[in-house]
Design goal:
Layout (H helix, E strand, L loop, with lengths): L4 H4 L2 H5 L1 H11 L4 H5 L5 E4 L14 E16 L9 E9 L4 E7 L4 H6 L5 E11 L2 E5 L2 E4 L5 H6 L4 E4 L8 H11 L12 H6 L5 H9 L4 H32 L12 H8 L6 H14 L6 E6 L5 H14 L3 E5 L3 H15 L16 E5 L5 H12 L3 E6 L13 E7 L6 H8 L7 E6 L5 H7 L4 E5 L9 E7 L4 H16 L3 E5 L10 H4 L5 H6 L6 H10 L7 E4 L5 H13 L4 E4 L12 E6 L7 H8 L9 E7 L6 H11 L3 H11 L26 H17 L7 H10 L2 H9 L1
Parallel strand pairs: 4-6, 9-14, 9-15, 10-12, 10-13, 11-12, 13-14, 16-21, 17-19, 17-20, 18-19, 20-21
Antiparallel strand pairs: 1-8, 2-3, 2-5, 3-4, 5-6, 5-7
């Protein structure tokens, strides 16, 4: 008898269409199984109340508290001019603080009868500030009486589960729905092999589901969570292990460099020695290239650690072995920059087929969407005839018309900016699957690499090449201390006075039309202060040129400019003809101007930690020390300012990536856009559960090696199918 369907039963049948519709729309829950895997966020103890003192603003909250006081006021208003308007103010307390609830109009009658002093209840609503006091307006509530059968049954446990809820669906309604489907948990098929479960002392899946939703003790919650963490980690790692296993079966052409070919000629001319890290990582890559199944390697390296040099040597080795190499860059600015720097590094070795090219030379071509027709046609011809060994381009490389003679290696720069389909399309251009090297300058904590890029082997470049200068970073609190901002512009003038250049980065371009939908809404004064539009490149450039940086050569750069104009601006800046470049984050990756020593980031709190670290890496690239000033109007105690202080306090990207991850929700780790929404992690915390993930990876590899098709483990197969819905399957397929 097949037991799975109980969990596949649509919620519509079990809970009725209206509730099922809200669950599907608000929480993405469609089946009984989905609902059983919607775990409580935390638990309230009947004897201990939530800390009202810690309520977050503007979030949907659930609190358990006691009514201290309830007063009905009448007032006059436009709707009730004769003073017949009614407002019920209820004060609740939990020992840590007090909170006001307000009900208006006809909505006052029921709470006025029910919320008497001394009554205990659960309240849910959005916390807002009115007259400088925290309040919940028209909260939904559920009395905790324990007299009727249902309430006794629902709240019998000493621990009340509080579920991630929405305005349309309060936590206790979700709790009641879960009560209804909980008996089906007995039929949950266990994905963990029995030996693994027993060996680690984990409870069964039905028991874990029962304990997470109806715990009798805190130990129950611990048991359930440790078991469910293992499920998430293990099923995901099995999916990745199967991906790696399948890749290892694919054929590829081994690419071994000739002993005295292009790579040797290039290495002989290098004016510096490679760092220890570059040599080690290059060896890992060359070993992979020499095998007859495709390399899948992730190269992580701090901004400026010399990743491009490592990638270029891998491309030269491929050309030596008779293949071609393609480098995919996320933006035209970056593709042009890579092309320029690679041609410069190679010198006459990049002049294959031209007068003055040496015997080992090859041709290095650029291919982007905005190139003229003749130049594009020539580049495509060079690729098809193998005249060009190396091509650098944007997603224009992926178009059907582009044909390679023999594509051997694909290098993807800044992988997080490419959709899965784009990488896959480029990989499909080889006669056999080409080798793949993915580069990122965003340091990724080890566990995230094991989770998100689990189908790639990882190499890390963590030492900076000699000659890179230190970067000093400081937070400039523009609202508290306006004179600090004035001093920041003086520092920029000083840097320019010493023959250097500076960047000013803003979050917005400034030529956008304001959204008419947003314009109509009325905003409170708090909103106005908090939510003014981010500072814009065009406005700031204008203010600086007329004000504090008057007399300096100021130019702007942003993503909506014509590609030729962007390139011209970058060339002038690189040549030293511009003093200050006011730009959006288009300069975030790959832009290399060693003479630029200062960067001022406006509204720095609007950027993520990793992004700030990336931007900062654009200065200090030469022999002079770098300076990065993070300008923010956020108050000192805010989380945003703490983030900026963290960035200012360390140059260690891996440390910052941990901070970044701890501050973002875990579920975002798998990239909502790249994976089905149902698969984001629920109980597994990528940073804290490093051990579980590492152990699950080992167990998964052993299981897949012994039984790649999982024929002996039907429960695991079922769990995999649930995890790998259509979208997700493709995500892993193309990793």
């Amino acid at each position: 008898m097949d037991l799975v369907p109980a969990l596949e039963e649509p919620l519509k049948k079990v809970l009725g269409p209206p509730t099922a519709k809200v669950m599907a729309e608000s929480l993405g829950l469609h089946t009984v199984g989905d609902l059983l895997h919607h775990y409580p966020r935390r638990y309230e103890e009947r004897g201990q109340l939530t800390h009202l003192a810690d309520l977050p603003l503007d979030e949907h909250v659930t609190v358990v508290a006691m009514v201290a006081d309830a007063r009905l006021h009448t007032f006059a208003s436009a709707k009730a001019p004769r003073g017949k308007g009614q407002r019920l103010e209820v004060t609740i307390t939990d020992g840590s603080g007090r909170l006001q609830l307000v009900f208006f109009g006809h909505g006052v009658h029921k709470p006025h009868k029910e919320l008497l002093p001394g009554t205990r209840a659960m309240f849910a609503g959005k916390a807002s500030v009115f007259n400088r006091r925290l309040q919940l307006a028209h909260p939904a509530y559920e009395l905790l009486r324990g007299d009727s059968e249902e309430t006794v049954e629902t709240w019998a446990g000493a621990l009340i589960p509080i579920y991630p809820a929405t305005a349309k669906l309060e936590s206790w309604k979700i709790g009641k729905a879960i009560q209804t489907v909980l008996p089906s948990a007995q039929e949950a098929v266990d994905p963990l092999p029995a030996a693994l479960r027993d060996g680690r002392g984990l409870v069964t899946l039905p028991e874990a589901l029962l304990k997470i939703h109806r715990p009798q003790t805190k130990a129950d919650i611990e048991d359930a969570r440790s078991r469910l963490k293992w499920d998430e980690a293990f099923v995901l790692q099995v999916a990745l292990a199967r991906r790696r296993h399948a890749d290892a079966q694919l054929p590829a052409v081994a690419r071994r460099p000739k002993p005295d070919g292009l790579l040797t000629a290039f290495d002989d001319r290098l004016p510096f020695t490679l760092t220890e890290g570059q040599r080690k990582v290059s060896k890992e890559i060359f070993d992979d290239l020499a095998t007859e199944h495709p390399m899948h390697r992730l190269l992580q390296g701090e901004v400026g650690s010399g990743k491009t040099m490592v990638a270029l040597r891998a491309m030269l080795a491929t050309v030596d072995a008779g293949g071609q190499a393609a480098m995919l860059a996320p933006t035209e600015v970056l593709a042009q920059q890579h092309h320029r720097s690679i041609v410069e590094m190679m010198g006459d070795l990049a002049e294959g087929g031209m007068l003055g090219g040496t015997e080992h030379a090859t041709k290095v071509v650029l291919l982007t969407g905005s190139m003229g027709t003749a130049a594009r046609r020539q580049a495509m011809l060079d690729l098809a005839t193998a005249e060009a060994g190396i091509v650098i381009g944007t997603h224009a490389l992926i178009e059907d018309k582009v044909q390679f003679h023999d594509l051997g290696l694909v290098v993807v720069d800044e992988q997080h900016r490419f959709g899965v389909e784009q990488r896959d399309a480029l990989r499909g251009k080889g006669k056999q699957p080409p080798h793949l090297l993915v580069m990122t300058a965003t340091p990724i904590p080890r566990t995230v690499a094991m989770t998100v890029f689990g189908d790639l082997e990882t190499s890390v470049l963590d030492q900076l090449p000699a000659g890179r200068s230190p970067i000093a970073s400081h937070v400039v609190p523009a609202a508290d201390k306006p004179h600090f901002l004035a001093r920041a512009w003086e520092r920029v003038r000083e840097e320019v006075g010493n023959g250097h250049q500076a960047y000013v980065v803003c979050p917005r371009i400034g030529d956008e039309d304001d959204d008419p939908k947003k314009a109509g809404r009325k905003k409170s004064p708090e909103d106005e202060a908090e939510k003014r539009p981010p500072l814009a490149v065009l406005d700031i450039a204008d203010q600086l040129a007329k004000g504090p940086l008057h007399g300096l050569r100021v130019e702007v750069l942003h993503g909506r400019m014509h590609p030729d104009d962007k390139d011209a601006v970058m060339r002038r800046f690189a040549a030293g003809d511009t003093d200050v470049l006011v730009a959006t984050t288009v300069i975030e990756v790959g832009v290399n101007v060693p003479n630029a020593t200062a960067m001022v980031i406006m509204d720095a709190d609007r950027f993520g930690v990793s992004q700030l670290h990336q931007l900062r890496g654009r200065v200090g690239r030469g022999s002079a020390p770098g300076l990065c000033l993070l300008v923010s109007e956020m108050p000192e105690a805010s989380a945003a300012r703490q983030r900026l202080n963290a960035v200012a306090s360390t140059l260690d990207g891996f440390e910052l990536s941990r901070i970044d991850l701890e501050q973002r929700r875990e579920g975002d780790v798998l990239g909502q856009a790249q994976s089905g929404a149902r698969t984001s992690l629920k109980v597994l915390a990528v940073i804290e559960d490093e051990e579980v993930i590492a152990e699950a990876r080992e167990e998964a590899a052993a299981v897949v090696a012994a039984d790649p098709e999982l024929e002996q483990l039907p429960g695991l197969r079922t769990a995999l199918d649930a995890l790998l819905d259509e979208e997700r399957e493709q995500y892993l397929e193309k990793g």
